[in-house]
Amino acid sequence: MNDDHLFQKLTAEPDVLSVSQLNARARQLLEDVFPRIWVEGELSNLSRPSSGHMYFTLKDDRAQIRCALFRQNAARVRLAMRDGQQIRARGRVSLYEGRGDYQLIVDSVETAGDGALRQAFEELKAKLQAEGLFATERKQPLPEHPTRIGVITSPSGAAVRDIISVFGRRAPFIELVIVPAAVQGREAAPQLVQALERADRAGFDAIILSRGGGSLEDLWPFNEEMVARALAACRTPTISAVGHETDISISDFVADVRAPTPSAAAELLSPDRQALLRQVEQLQRRLQQRLAERLSRARLQLDGLRRRLRHPGERLSQQAQRLDEMELRLRRALENRLRQRNERLQHLQTRLTTQHPGRRLQRLQEQWQQLDQRLPRAMQQQLKQQQTRLQQQVQALHLMSPLATLGRGYSILLDQHGKAVRSAGDTRPGQRLSARLQDGTLAVEVIKDEPHTLSLLD
């Protein structure tokens, strides 16, 4: 959570707060800012009132903090707590509003030496989880009616006695085979691996891996990687029942099923004899009820069929009456269809009369006569317009023609190629030219060229 946002939210409150308002906001701030944390220190001032809660102080050489361990969480702590003990407590930071005391609300306690084991536990857990050993899809279902079960545990421990007691009470017909192995100490992990391999080859319907409660160090063989991998390699369905209900081991995550206690594991695999008898009785009652219901429905169905069964003569008379009704309906349908067809025929005849070819030819002939009368007039008018336009263009052409200029006394000089001579500079003495007049052509010779520019005033 953003701390700046919390402080901004607090500063938005009124400037003057009551003591209870201040403590409430301080508690909210502490609980929002600090997540669940571990704190290590020396235990002192331990008190156990009759309420079942525990109150103590954690301190080091420079500071201390009050701690509260409420009854529900205190019942799960197996550590024998005493003053002067070095412990590690997990909890959330809060504030006791009544006195304004800053405190740690504890939910779990362990000795300080368990910290390294706890870290190793979390690291191995993360590693195996990443490899998929905890995946739900690889879990095998337990058999519904097992007949032979292998139990891997210490032959002299309390766990094996609890398991035997539950099976003896609930399902004495199931065969139990004890596969002995050490469940504590350095030799426990290799022996557990060997026991798992032997039990998996023995063809049991299921395997129970179990031991009683203890400290984290006592239960550590069930947190070893070799045991976890041997458990994951088992083709036989497995149940992990290690410690008490609050104890969690790596074996619990790898096994197909986790049982909170050895007795619970036995109950999962042992069908209760009395419950089975009750189930058989219940199924018998349900079967009898279903048979009675089936017979009752069959009687009702038989009665119904008996009432529906009638004399053939009555049925024939009903069919004859129905045939008469259908004949009348058919006749009415034919009359309606014939009337509709006649109406449609009359409608089509009316449309055909209006669309007769003779009328259309008459209209076309009238249009042709009108066009025949308009065509000569249009042609005469168009001819007159074209003649007028031709005369106008002839007059304009005459005005622009060089022949009109020649008629006013001018001539056009042409060289031997027939090109008009436009400038005296285009000629040379002795050159023969032809002069174009209005009524003919003269052959001339250039004697002398004298360039001279004329203006309109000359």
Automatic annotation (TrEMBL):
Pfam family, one: tRNA_anti_2
Signal peptide: none
GO CC entries: cytoplasm; exodeoxyribonuclease VII complex
Start and end residues of each OB-fold nucleic acid binding domain: 17-110
Keyword Hydrolase: yes
Reactions it catalyzes: Exonucleolytic cleavage in either 5'- to 3'- or 3'- to 5'-direction to yield nucleoside 5'-phosphates
GO BP field: DNA catabolic process
Domain Exonuclease VII large subunit C-terminal: 133-444
Catalytic activity, EC: 3.1.11.6
Residue ranges of coiled coil: 273-381
Localization (cell): Cytoplasm
Taxonomic superkingdom: Bacteria
InterPro entries: Exonuc_VII_L, Exonuc_VII_lsu_C, OB-fold_nuc-bd_dom
Keywords, sorted A to Z: Coiled coil, Cytoplasm, Exonuclease, Hydrolase, Nuclease
Alphabetized GO MF terms: exodeoxyribonuclease VII activity; nucleic acid binding
Reported function: Bidirectionally degrades single-stranded DNA into large acid-insoluble oligonucleotides, which are then degraded further into small acid-soluble oligonucleotides.
Recorded family membership: Belongs to the XseA family.
Subunit (UniProt): Heterooligomer composed of large and small subunits.
Name of the protein: Exodeoxyribonuclease 7 large subunit
Source organism: Halopseudomonas pachastrellae
Gene responsible for this protein: xseA
